Amino acid sequence: MVKMRTDEGFTIVEMVVTLLFISIISLGILTMHTQVSILSIINRQDQKASYLAYDNMRKYVNGAPPTWFLCTDPLPGAVQQVLLDSEGHISELPGTTKQKVVASAPYGCGDAVSSLGMPIRVESVVTYGNGKRVTHVAYAAF
């Protein structure tokens, strides 16, 4: 004769193993989601700082004659002019944000008057958070 089993359902061991397995999988998914969110925030901050540095640079290097650059010394690299130096809070960027735009004439500026083709190096730096720094550099014709 065949003896029929009357127990139905899961044993306590099966339930504990199943709950443990589900907990481990859920914790892994939650950890990955948190890491992706943090990376997304960091990427957005870097992008915002990059746009800010680029916009600051393009205010000066925009195709117009560089009337904002005064060359007082014709020697290469002797003239370095600070065009923008500010510090404050920018939305979406952590901590204090420092913005600096510096112009220089790496090859000199001839006779200190406009001489076609002499490049002016314009460097825009944005520093934010714990020393994170974004730099954009372009050249304008003097």
Overview of this structure, please?
The structure is a single chain. The chain is an alpha+beta fold and 142 residues long. It has one domain (12-141). It contains 1 helix and 4 strands, in the order αββββ. Strands 1-2-3-4 form a 4-stranded antiparallel sheet. A hairpin with a 3-residue loop joins β3 and β4 (132-141). The N and C termini lie far apart (105 Å).
SSE run: HEEEE
Question: In angstroms, what is the radius of gyration?
Answer: 30 Å
What percentage of residues falls in helices of 4 or more residues?
25-40%
Shape estimate: rod-shaped
Beta-strand residue fraction: 25-35%
So how many helices?
1
- Count of DSSP strands: 4
In the residues, how many domains can be counted?
A: 1
**Major sheet summary line:** 4 strands, antiparallel
Overview in brief:
It is built from 1 helix and 4 strands; from the N terminus they run αββββ. The protein has 142 residues and is an alpha+beta fold.
SSE diagram, text form:
Blueprint: H1 12-58, E1 80-88, E2 97-104, E3 119-128, E4 132-141
Antiparallel strand pairs: 1-2, 2-3, 3-4
